[in-house]
């Protein structure tokens, strides 16, 4: 059985994915996670603090999954292709939910620096992931932008078509 904090985070993921950050309230999270309200406030001072924790957990999960997915590949090109295959895998696993970070970004105000910093750090880490694979900074950024746009387009159209197209473009670039 999971701890109250783990149930809160798992419930948060489901609710944020299904109805968004702004439409999800603390009372609903508490009820669906089957925890006491006091337990919620023991772990989180606010919904904003919960969101930060959720995004940090999601960041760690996402990179663990990505690194595990591409770990068997040895060559740069194979690692890149596998990174894009990872998006297809995640789309199948999570039913085209898209990027939790960008989904929340679209709902917060621009002055919410607490959540914005977590989102920006995640995207910096994704960008750095490609920079570590490819020495040419411009090429690494180009592939990062293909990766990010593939996430958004696949969510929007519920299709992996543009992920496959991005893989073909990368093959021509490298």
Beginning-to-end CA distance, first to last residue: 48 Å
> What is the mean predicted local confidence, pLDDT?
96
Q: Helix fraction?
A: over 70%
Q: Could you give a short account of the major beta sheet?
A: none
What letter string, H or E per element, gives the SSE order? HHHHHHHHH
Outline, from the CA principal axes? elongated
DSSP helix count? 9
Number of E-state strands: 0
What is the radius of gyration computed over CA atoms, rounded to a whole number of angstroms? 17 Å
Task: Tell me the strand percentage band.
Answer: under 5%
- The class by helix and strand makeup works out as mainly alpha
Low-confidence stretches: none
Explained architecture:
- The protein is mainly alpha-helical.
- It is built from 9 helices and no strands.
- It has helices at residues 4-19, 26-33, 37-43, 47-70, 76-94, 100-105, 113-133, 137-157, 161-173.
- Helix 4 (47-70) crosses helix 5.
- The radius of gyration is 17 Å and the shape is elongated.
- The protein starts with a helix and ends with a helix.
- The mean pLDDT is 96.
Task: Record the SSE blueprint.
Elements: H1 4-19, H2 26-33, H3 37-43, H4 47-70, H5 76-94, H6 100-105, H7 113-133, H8 137-157, H9 161-173
Helix pairs in contact: 1-2, 4-5, 4-7, 5-8, 5-9, 7-8, 8-9
């Amino acid at each position: 059985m999971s701890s109250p904090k783990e149930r809160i985070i798992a419930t948060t993921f489901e609710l944020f994915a299904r109805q968004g950050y702004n439409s999800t309230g603390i009372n609903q999270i508490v009820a669906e996670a089957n925890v006491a309200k006091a337990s919620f406030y023991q772990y989180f001072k606010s919904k904003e603090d919960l969101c930060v924790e959720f995004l940090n957990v999601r960041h760690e999960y996402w990179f663990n999954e990505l690194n595990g997915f591409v770990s068997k590949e040895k060559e740069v090109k194979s690692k890149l292709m596998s990174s894009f295959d990872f998006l297809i895998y995640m789309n199948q696993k999570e039913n085209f939910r898209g990027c939790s970070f960008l989904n929340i970004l679209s709902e917060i105000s621009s002055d919410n620096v607490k959540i914005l910093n977590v989102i920006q750090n995640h995207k910096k880490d994704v960008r750095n992931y490609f920079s570590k694979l490819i020495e040419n900074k411009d090429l690494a950024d180009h592939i990062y932008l293909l990766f990010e746009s593939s996430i958004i387009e696949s969510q929007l159209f519920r299709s992996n078509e543009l992920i496959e197209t991005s893989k073909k473009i990368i093959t021509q670039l490298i």
